[in-house]
Design a protein that fits this description.
The chain has 4 helices and 4 strands; from the N terminus they run H-H-H-H-E-E-E-E. The termini are far apart.
Length: 173
Amino acid sequence: MTASSNNSSSRRGGSNDDDGSDAPVPSEISAIALTILGTFVAGRCLAVVSRLATVLAAPVAGFYLMTTCPTNESFDAKKELKRVLRGYYKPDTDPSKPKNFLEKAMAKVNATVEAEAAAIAGCNVEIIDLLGLVKIAAINNSVSQTSYFFLGAIHKWRYIMSKNFPGKETKAD
């Protein structure tokens, strides 16, 4: 009878060392609960610190951008247009960027001619001030029907992109 009562007790949920399905000891459960609670508390603390850092860093970054924003007079449209046209802002891996001395000289001559033609034709320069933090300058070149965009921040003007605009067609009556 001891053997059958032993079998019945292990079927009812009693302790069985062979199958490894023992319930965790209460001290293990409390350790797991404390780990989960500690993780939750640490996550909440990190979230609060992150928000606090953002609240403190945003005004400091804004003040830095305001004090280092370049003036409108510091933007030299002809010089920046020449740099773009001769490939100064292109990455070194770009196949259209001049590589040797002759290509660089020809690109410089072409850039000078086109920049002077744009100046004679009256290229339009627009500068937009965004809350005193940064400035965006646009050079609208009527000769090549292209606009060139620059970002002014942290004492420098940086080339962003250029966009071609088709010529305005007039309707004949």
